[in-house]
Structure formats: C-alpha cells, structure tokens
Amino acid sequence: YINGSGAFTDGISMNLGSFGARVIIGGSIIGNVAAVDTQGGNTVTTSGSADLSGTFGIRLNGADNTVQHGGTITAITDGVIMSTRDTMTVSGSIYGESTGILVESQEVEANNIIDITHSGVVQGGRARVFEDTSSQTVAQSQTGAIQLQGDPGAVNTIDNAGSIIANPTSSYTDANMNTIPAPNPIAILDAVPQSTGQTPFDESLSGDTRVLNTGLIDGDIVLGGGRDVVENAGTIKGQVRMGDGEDVFAGYGGLL
After folding, report:
1. Is the pLDDT of residue 117 over 70?
2. Tell me, what's the pLDDT at 11?
3. Could you tell me where the beta strands, DSSP code E, fall in 107-178?
C-alpha cells in the first residue's frame, strides 16, 4: 500500500534517470496527482489485485513506455495518459471521469498501440456545457472513453476484444431555462474537444486512427481529419461519424 497524498505527489514516480526500469504492482496505490508516473522507456505491470487511484491512474511521459494492466484504475480525470510510441495492454478495468485513456502526444511519430483483451474494460467520457456571462449557452464539449489527439501523420491503433464504454450523458438546463438535449455518449474520440465557439471538436489535431473491434464499443466513434479505418466484427452500440479525411468503415458480420 502506497499513499502519495501530499500536494503535487505521485504514488510512484519513475524519473528521467530510470529508463529501462520495470515496476510490478499487486497492491493499492493512491496518488494526489498520478498513482504511477513514468518519464519514458519503462514498463509498468499491474496484477489483478492492483488498485490504482488518483487524479490520473497511470501517466506516461516521454516515449517508448509499456503497460500491462490487469488490475483496477479509478481516476478523477484520466485513467491513463499515453504519449509517444507507448504500448498498452488492458486485461483489467480502467475508469476515468473525463477519459479512460487519453493519448495526448503532438508528435508525428506518436504511433501508440492500445490492445484491450476479452476481459479488459475501458470506461470514461463526459459532456459539458459552457455559458457566457449573460447565461447564454455558447458551446458544448465532450470527451470519450478513449480520446486520441496527435500530429497529422501519426498512427494510433486500438485493437478491442473487450469493452469500451462511454459514460452516460444527461440534458442540461441553462439559467434561462433552455434545455440542451443530452448528446450521444462518445466511446472513441479522434479529435480535441473545444471549449469555446460553435465547433464541438478540432479535427486538425488528429492523426490516422485504426480501430479493430471484435468486442463491444458502447457509444459513438467520432473520427478526425486523418485517414482513419474502422473494422468491426463485434458490436458497436452507437454511430460511426466519419471525419474530414479518407476514412474507411468495414463490417465483417458485426453489429452496428
């Protein structure tokens, strides 16, 4: 049991000098910031008895990190933050109030891989409404259970045999008693949410996304501006919203 509950404190921190290190977790870790923070080139393994919680569950900085997650992550914002050339295998559960997994690299060589096995569950996503000073609704913003954002040309791959579940959304009533209908929950978002203006997503910060689904995706898939590919042999309970690029959807006996 590790409790990093002090201000700006991580439960476990693997700094810049720890390239090539490996940490194996089988117990409980609480972080005021992240339960586990690693700066690059390291491996994090969690067993079924591992329980990670914090503002973030696991935060991967730098590049070339590997995560094998078989435990439980519960995060106030993002369950896992990935960066550049990271590989993540999920056989446990990840929950984030904002996102389950957030890929936030802005580098062209981002090329991250998310592999969700049959027992893996990733859940997250939320919808927010922003109002100006006169209480007039000006924008809605959404995140997804998995959110991808990166430089055009980067390739991020999601191979899902488990479950990707969007948190439910609800309608909103502003100060003038105008009701904003609940938007569709988003399971995979390949764009950056906007907090101002009338465009809900910025598709310019999105690379080429590849989604192979043989499991369950519960929520919409929103594609960005790259050359995106969705191959479905499982179940998608939502819409597949194509982006601005040369996108491809292929169904192989799955349900949509």
Report:
1. yes
2. 87
3. 113-116, 121-124, 127-131, 137-142, 146-148, 155-160, 163-166, 172-173
